[in-house]
Amino acid sequence: MSTNENKDSAAKDTEVSVSNNNKTVRKLLLVVVAMFGFGFALVPLYDVFCDITGLNGKTNTTAAAYTEGGIDESRTVRVQFITRNAKGIPWKFEPVINEINVHPGEMKVVSFYAKNNAAHDIVGQAVPSVSPGLAANYFHKIECFCFTQQPLSAGNDVEMSLQFYVDVELPTDIKTLTLSYTLYDITEKSS
Amino acid sequence: MTTDVITQDSHDEHHDDHKMTGIKRWLYTTNHKDIGTLYLWFAFIMFLTGGALAMVIRAELFQPGLQLVEPDFFNQLTTVHGLIMVFGAIMPAFTGFANWMLPMMLGAPDMALPRMNNWSFWILPFAFAILLGSFFMESGAPNFGWTFYAPLSTTYSNGSTAFFVFAVHIMGISSIMGAINIVVTIMNMRAPGMTYMKMPLFVWTFFITAYLLIAVMPVLAGVVTMLLTDTYFGTSFFDAAGGGDPVMFQHIFWFFGHPEVYIMILPAFGIVSTIIPAFSRKRLFGYSSMVYATSSIALLSFIVWAHHMFTTGMPLFGELFFMYCTMLIAVPTGVKVFNWVATMWRGSLSFETPMLFSIAFVILFTIGGFSGLMLAMTPVDFQYHDTYFVVAHFHYVLVTGSLFSIYAGAYYWLPKWTGHMYNDSLSKWHFWCSLVSVNLLFFPMHFLGLAGMPRRIPDYALQFADFNKWVSIGGFAFGLSQLIFLAVVIKCIRGGEKAPAKPWDGAIGLEWTVASPAPYHTFSTPPPQSDIDNADQHEH
After folding, report:
1. Is the Cβ pair B214, A35 closer than 8 Å?
2. How far apart are CA A113 and CA B263, in angstroms?
3. Which of B59, B222, B282, B514 is found 20 to 30 A from B168 (Cα to Cα)?
4. Which residue has the higher pLDDT, B421 or B535?
5. pTM (predicted TM-score)
6. Which residues of B462-474 are buried (b: 16+ CB within 10 A; e: fewer)?
7. Does A25 touch chain B if contact means CB atoms closer than 8 Å?
8. What ipTM does this complex have?
């Protein structure tokens, strides 16, 4: 009798601990799934964060409107242009002028030269980045070849324009801006 | 499903002596002691494998110029060395300790989820077979560093990315299962009367570590999945051409990576906090503060990741934020170091091998902590970044930190595991040879780094030649010294002086209330309250 009771209570204990274990495991698995999702959620979060703070030199990817906010002629900002080809794109790609002095608020147009040296058609995509990164939010592109893809048939060349202005709100300690374009071959992805 | 598993296990318990023989015992085992043994042996084999790779690295770096290996193969060696030591040696060794000791310290009959325990171990060999097997593939092994930064591991990969990703997935699943098991065991399997604040600090550190693992291993799984799809399925998470961002890889990776380094050191704190009081014949100084310090280190580890990325062009505010947060971690870590010293203060110290390794841990880990503090300072990090100074730093915390604690723990519990005392003089040889050679190996790296020698290079400028020669000699000596440990363990398993239930007179803990070697099943009935109270690490 008493051994039976013991057995019963032992069985009950086991049952209780099993259901406790299952509950805990379920909760922990939920955390695992949530954290896996969080890893992926970091991707859009990161973009939004960079967008708001202008970190990481990401500039606007769609055309900005020019607002007549007056030109701050009291200071001059040097804007430098550099270009780079990503691996495997045989284009000649360079700025027509390497740098330009602008007053904040003043609109400028500059152009970039590209020539497809390959024997086949290539679609290129230029990705801009501004240094120092904090200046990215103050660099406004009204029109840019980087907003669209650039198809170039074999041997052809093109002059592409960039219309921009530097915001009058640009922090005064920033005297030089570098705009860098990296050119990628996206023929496969665009087809 | 789990219900079936448990029922079957409790059924097994009725046949106390029922044990399969031969290979089947190890393949099918759900016994926490067997699985702990498997983990420990696996970790040691992986440690020797990763060490062998390091020997080739040091042989190549013995003098300037390219002597033995091609630069690409050199990169494969450093990458796989890092991956094996982190995921194959240190982490499984700690899981082995957890399996062996947690149930015995908590007065529990086994881990909470024995069948899953078996799985979490037995998938590991497959992960490392894939990783090491890639050495023999046409592409070669991963060559992009253990941090596998995009685009090195995507656009510029040698074709090993898929093997690497699958291997990491399996390691991750194994770690997550192991961690869930640890958390469930600690929450639900404590003997009646064992409150959270009565648990040994060892248990606390594994509890917190397991939570860290559950939180960040899925993030690692996510980031390697992104790598995989970027490389083979045309996504652009880290590819600027498609609107992605390679710097984002570093953010996600280090969001996993920084908690990961605490995953590899918090259990070491637990082991050392067990051993130092035992050989000081005192209770641990400041038990509660140790618990809170460990928790705060774990929490802070989530907000410091970008200190690995100071040179990526962060704004000043970000650099300051991550610098100060990182320095803040020195506070709880300092609490721990001072507590260990205070535990030894006016204690009746004796210097058995576990204590020697523990004291070496406290001193050398602190050196590693200080060089970490130097690296935390943004302005100087610009000079130290990606130099041998970084290599020196993380080897001080991982080798003389984590690894030394593992040795300390192994010597401390070997009598409990095998039933025999280890050969004392051989173990002392192991300690002193390791101590001298490890400092010859890693200390000059500080100077190499400060003088500007970059890490991950197969060749270097002439002015670094002398130091590199000494470092390599230290490396070979350290590698050979570890074979002494192998000899000690084998001798100890085969025979030796019979160990009493409690071979260390100052030791406390429930594990010493059972016989040596620990019977196959322990604490089928919970320990009495008096034993639990005696095992309490609080000062009285």
Report:
1. yes
2. 52
3. B59
4. B421
5. 0.89
6. eebeebbeebbeb
7. yes
8. 0.86
